[in-house]
């Protein structure tokens, strides 16, 4: 089952319930209440469920006054309009094109990745390095997570398998200094994209955020990307909110969308920060990274 199948069923059910016959206001409220519960269960944020409910209400009104004859089409058009607006920040956005534009102007694009441990951040960075290398860029991976045991070795192993060079510091070193050193090495050796891995956990949340702010201040990244696990739903949303508040996020990558993820998270994330979702992760292979396309998502829903 594709990840958006449950959402497609929700929208199909509400169309049938509301529009195959004339419904009273009380019946409409009951249907919309059930719609909201179903959407919340699919990791759609409460604010978004209200927007979708209002869209359905407007579709019903259009049919009642005769502006729309096709009831199903009225719902589809109104709901799709709302969802397209929510996903609009991702429309026509290509991570690779953004990186390429920076490289053409500055000669070097620095990307710093944020996210908690377990979300697949390090693996995702390797996937992006592989993707950029295949596209003709000269990427350099940077192991700036000097806190988590095994983090440096993990990225170094990915470096070998993906065929992308890596710059490593030592455990306990200042991550901002590691990032700065990597940028200097990239300039000296002709790399044109620097992909910086960062810690996802420290002694306290305040320590982590202080470190992230310092990394941003020192490396001056062109892009700050949040990597979140789609499976954890609202937890990923709360993580994104905190990182965005502290360092400012330019875009998002959602991992593990091939597992038992609920498709509603793409709308929740998009509505939260109004920044693009660059990729969704759909497997463990280095090519298992899919560019996020809002129109593909909408076609799967209706």
TrEMBL record:
Pfam families named among the record's database cross-references: SRP54, SRP54_N
InterPro entries with a match to the protein in the record: AAA+_ATPase, P-loop_NTPase, Signal_recog_particl_SRP54_hlx, SR_rcpt_FtsY, SRP/SRP_N, SRP54_GTPase_dom, SRP54_N_sf
GO CC annotations, alphabetized: cytoplasm; plasma membrane
GO molecular function: GTP binding; GTPase activity; signal recognition particle binding
Keyword annotations from UniProtKB, A to Z: Cell membrane, Cytoplasm, GTP-binding, Hydrolase, Membrane, Nucleotide-binding, Receptor
Subcellular location: Cell membrane
Record family assignment: Belongs to the GTP-binding SRP family.
Protein name from the UniProt record: Signal recognition particle-docking protein FtsY
Gene source species: Candidatus Marsarchaeota G2 archaeon OSP_D
């Amino acid at each position: 089952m594709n990840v958006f199948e449950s959402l497609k069923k929700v929208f199909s059910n509400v169309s049938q319930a509301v529009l195959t016959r004339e419904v009273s206001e009380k019946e409409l409220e009951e249907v919309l209440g059930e719609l909201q519960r179903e959407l919340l269960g699919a990791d759609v944020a409460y604010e978004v469920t209200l927007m979708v409910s209002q869209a359905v209400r407007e579709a019903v009104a259009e049919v009642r006054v005769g502006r729309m004859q096709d009831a199903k089409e009225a719902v589809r058009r109104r709901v799709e309009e709302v969802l397209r607006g929510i996903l609009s920040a991702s429309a026509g956005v290509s991570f690779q094109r953004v990186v390429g534009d920076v490289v053409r102007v500055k000669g070097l694009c620095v990307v710093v990745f944020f996210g908690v441990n377990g979300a697949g951040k390090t693996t995702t960075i390797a996937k992006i390095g592989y993707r950029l290398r295949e596209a003709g860029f000269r990427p350099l991976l940077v192991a700036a997570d000097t806190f988590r045991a095994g983090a440096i070795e993990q990225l170094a192993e990915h470096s070998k398998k993906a065929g992308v060079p890596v710059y490593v510091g030592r455990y306990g070193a200042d991550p901002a200094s590691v990032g700065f050193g990597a940028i200097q090495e990239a300039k000296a050796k002709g790399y044109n994209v620097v992909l910086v891995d960062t810690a996802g956990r420290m002694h306290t949340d305040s320590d982590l955020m202080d470190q992230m702010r310092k990394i941003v201040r020192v490396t001056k990244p062109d892009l700050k990307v949040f990597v979140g696990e789609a499976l954890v739903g609202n937890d990923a949303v709360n993580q994104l909110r905190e990182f965005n508040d502290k360092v400012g996020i330019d875009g998002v990558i959602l991992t593990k969308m091939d597992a038992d993820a609920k498709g509603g998270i793409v709308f929740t994330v998009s509505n939260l920060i109004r920044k693009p979702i660059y990729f969704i992760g759909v497997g463990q292979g280095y090519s298992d990274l899919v560019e996020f396309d809002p129109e593909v998502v909408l076609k799967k829903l209706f």
